[in-house]
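[recover] target loaded
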């Protein structure tokens, strides 16, 4: 009877699983700050892709750990870049698996910021845009199905859309990290992706957690610039923002249940302070209830294995 009257549905079809791919790694290597999550070597990807499909998880979001970093972040658009290679392997092993590629420079820059820097260490927004365009085209060329810019530079969606269209990828959609807050909950990810800024922080280009109207404004701007789908990140501390976005737009909405949200729950479960499986169910359901069409979550595998 509960099933008959349930308002919110959660199935594996709603989940996106983030993957960290590390150059030079063979097999898997556990991420200490995210119990149950691994970095994967290229040789582990084909099996991973097939297992995710067997679990009916439709999509992955790819992050790369390049062999080396530089001032510009040139590993982001290298033809044989780590994500480019990973995408090709995943699509070959499981063609129907949707590969979403994160687009940003912070995993590839020696300073760990999301764009090029002025001499004073602040980010040069406009000079970064052509590099993001080039990265997006390179990822689409490698077979990525959806391009997801997370850098938060102003004007990036329009630049990436134009780059994709000119490059012959007008059918490749853009999922923009439209409302991305400057959050403490990204901590474990930065260990996982080795992308912590070497100095300063990202508050110059990520959003103030206090501002929901501004988040809506960012979302509408990105849609105006050509975003086909938009994201709210993190999820749990921003369910109200998610609901407001859902009510305001007609495009698909994604929510990113980020590393800190994951690790917090897993740490409490490890100590026996909460029931892990029930807490995961409730977390993912709440994000769907707040309006997310897709939930990007490190729990995706664990959840799908039980359902
Ligand atoms: Zn970044």
């Amino acid at each position: 009877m509960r099933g008959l009257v349930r308002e919110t549905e959660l199935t594996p079809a709603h989940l996106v699983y983030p993957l960290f791919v590390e150059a030079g790694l063979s097999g898997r290597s556990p991420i200490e700050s995210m119990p149950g999550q691994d970095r994967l070597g290229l040789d582990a990807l084909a099996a991973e892709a097939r297992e995710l499909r067997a679990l009916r998880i439709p999509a992955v979001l790819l992050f790369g750990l390049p062999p080396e970093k530089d001032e510009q972040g040139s590993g982001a658009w290298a033809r044989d870049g780590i994500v480019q290679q990973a995408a090709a392997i995943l699509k070959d092993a499981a063609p129907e698996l949707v590969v979403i590629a994160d687009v940003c420079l912070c995993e590839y820059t020696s300073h760990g910021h999301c764009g090029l820097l002025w001499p004073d260490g602040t980010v040069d927004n406009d000079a970064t845009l052509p590099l993001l365009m080039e990265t997006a085209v390179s990822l689409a060329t490698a077979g990525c199905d959806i391009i997801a810019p997370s850098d938060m530079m102003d004007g990036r969606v329009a630049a990436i859309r134009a780059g994709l269209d000119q490059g012959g990828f007008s059918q490749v959609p853009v999922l923009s990290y439209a409302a991305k807050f400057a959050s403490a909950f990204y901590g474990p990810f930065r260990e996982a992706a080795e992308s912590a800024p070497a100095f300063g922080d990202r508050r110059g280009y990520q959003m103030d957690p206090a501002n929901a109207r501004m988040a809506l404004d960012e979302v509408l701007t990105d849609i105006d610039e050509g975003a086909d789908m938009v994201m709210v990140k993190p999820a749990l501390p921003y369910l109200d923002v998610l609901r407001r976005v859902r009510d305001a737009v007609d495009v698909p909405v994604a929510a990113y249940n980020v590393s800190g949200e994951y690790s917090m729950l897993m740490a409490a479960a490890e100590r026996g302070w909460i029931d892990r499986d029930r807490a995961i169910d409730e977390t993912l359901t709440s994000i769907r209830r707040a309006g997310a069409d897709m939930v990007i979550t490190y729990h995706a595998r664990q959840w799908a294995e039980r359902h």
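[recover] notes: The mean pLDDT is 95.
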